[in-house]
Structures are given as C-alpha cells and as structure tokens.
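Suppose a colleague, Dr. K., hands you the sequence of a protein chain of 188 amino acids and asks what its three-dimensional shape might be. Before reaching for any lab equipment, you can write down a predicted structure in token form. Begin with the sequence itself:
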Amino acid sequence: MNQLSTLPTTGEQTRRALLLLGAPAAARFVVDVHGALFDGDLSTAALARLLRERTPGFCAALRPDLTAAPGLMALADWSLDRRIMTPAVRRADELAMIVRVAEFVAMRRGAGRAAGRLLRELAPRVPGGVEALDLAEAARDALADAALTAQIAAEGPVREAAAARAAELDQKQQLYGVPAVPHQRGGG
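The predicted structure, expressed as tokens, is then:
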C-alpha cells in the first residue's frame, strides 16, 4: 500500500518552527509553537528522534563546558556562538522568541484560538506580560532591561572562550557536544 502525505516531514516542520523562534529551544516549546501556528503533526518524540538519530540539519545547543544543553535543540547551520547557552543569553533568547511569536501571530489575520492560547501561556514569562496590551512590546522592554543587558555582557567572555574551544572540536562534537565526563568518586 502506498501512503502519500501532503504534510511536511518532521524535519521540515521542526525547521519551520526553529526558524520562527530564531534560537535554540526546548522540544516541547517547538512542538507547542508549531502546533499553534502551523499545520502538521509534530511531537516531542519525533523531535527527540531527530537528535538521537543525528538527523542532518539539527543539533544540540551547547553549554559553556561544550556538553549538550539538555532538551535544547538548534539548527546545525546556526553559528557556534549562537548555540552556546548561558543563563542570561537563554533568558534573552526566550524573550526574543516571545517577541517573534507575538509578532507572527499579530501578522496573521484570524490566527485562531490555538495561537491566542499560546500567547496566553507565554505572557507569564514576560515581566508585565499578563497585563500587557502588546506582549511583543512587553518582551522588548524586558530585553532592554539594564540588569539583563549587564548579565549578558558579563557572560560574554565565558561564551567567547567556549566558542573558541568549540571551534577546535571536530564537526560531530561541534554539533552534539563533547561527552560529559562521569563524576569520579574517591579521588584521594
């Protein structure tokens, strides 16, 4: 029996959602965004399979120690420095993703209830977002916050050093991180 489908593949659906988000994101968030804004049948299990099977075009976000950031996926063609996650950069990326999603929803006439539900779920992640008339604007204001800007600047040297170390790794390690070294007991 021949099964023809007009739905995009899991990879195409994931790429579409990640391009909209513009930064490494948790699989659940990618699925939620895709489900609310696009047609398809994307699932977290399918996303996990993309990373587990090391599907070309997708990779893991990296921590400053160059191990894979748990649960965060990225596009392989994004630069190393864009895929290295530190706490303040992760927070800024989250706010930027909310801006992008809110603006995307605002541009789509009749976006539907799923898109509205997604925005309501995102609003508590933004200071003043629940009360804001414009979630994108509230997220932009949070991105411009002096404390967040200072935290990002303070993390800059750590991220630059990690990117320099990552550039020396082989291609596979640049995409999926270096294996974590298990904790050794009794090192005396």
